[in-house]
Amino acid sequence: MAACALLKHKPNPNDADIDAAMTPVVCRCGTYPRVRAAIHLAARRMG
Q1: Domain total in the chain
Q2: How far is CA 38 from the centre of its chain?
Q3: DSSP string covering 9-36
Q4: Hey, is 40 helix, strand or coil?
Q5: Predicted pLDDT at 32
């Protein structure tokens, strides 16, 4: 839901935007690169 809200607010987020939106919800234990990649992919597909 956080990623969806981010993309509605900012359709082309950069890594810093993604980190800020996902920090409260996702552990940074190595999944961030995949989360960022998934959000960038979703943004491209939505755009």
Answers
A1: 1
A2: 7
A3: H-SS--HHHHHHHHTTTS--SS-HHHHH
A4: helix
A5: 84
Q: Residue 11: how many CB atoms within 10 A of its CB?
A: 11
pLDDT of the residue at 20: 93
**pLDDT, tens digit, 9 for 90 and up, residues 4-47:** 999 999 999 999 999 999 988 877 677 788 999 999 999 999 98
Residue 47 DSSP label:
-
CA–CA–CA angle 34, 39, 45 (5° rounding): 125
The structure tokens listed for 3 are: 């990623």
Range of the domain at 39: 2-46
